[in-house]
Design brief:
TIM Barrel; binds 1,3-dihydroxyacetonephosphate; 12 helices; 8-stranded parallel barrel; alpha/beta
Amino acid sequence: MRLKIIIGNWKMNKTGPEAMELARGLIGTVGKTDRPRVVLCPPFTALGDVAKLIKGSSIFLGAQNMYSKESGAYTGEIAPAMLLTIGVSYVILGHSERREYFSESDVIVNDKVKLAIKTGLIPIVCVGEKLEERDAGLSEEFIGRQIDGSLGDLTEEELKKVVIAYEPVWAIGTGRTATPEMAQEIHIFIRNRLGKRYGDIAAGTISILYGGSVNGGNAAGLLSQPDIDGALVGGASLKIDEFTKIVSSI
Ligand code: 13P
């Protein structure tokens, strides 16, 4: 059985006190849920406080990014060990917003993935095509390249520690979600791609999440697909009712 995971990516939202309020609310609704696993990814500035709040609950903590070096003169960056020691378990890597606005390439993402695993963090590796690629019928070719490049030369043992998130860029923050069938088709494609490289057992154990305008209304349809193992949620993760509904849709 693959692990089912619902992740809230709060992106660049919520000051410290606002983050505490949201986390407190979610502890009240999903703080005892262990199937699916619930992961909250607040901004860096709120991680320490949210870590203390969720202690004793079933909720896991994730970061939205990290740097690809262990320590050193990299002003403004955050090392994975800094995250691990405050109680972070997961880290989102290669999100399309990082790729688009901060020029993160597959090579950079791969460096981060390797260091995250070495440090003991679970990387959530994001891939997804833009509308122009989908319209040109190039979704699979594009996603295949992102998967190969972002995972690079990981061993089978390393791959088993990775979570993948398929987030079509055209569905992020647009209210335009992929249909369950469209998403399932890409998830199968990703699983087969992993299967070719790493074998069926490794590919079969990897959780592949869908992201892009997931909300309380469309979650159940998406999550009922056999290869959709959870969701990476942006906007709706900032609303207690919506996020709670998504978590209870599995
Ligand atoms: P939305 O749910 O707001 O579309 O964002 C998806 C996302 O980018 C999660 O990482």
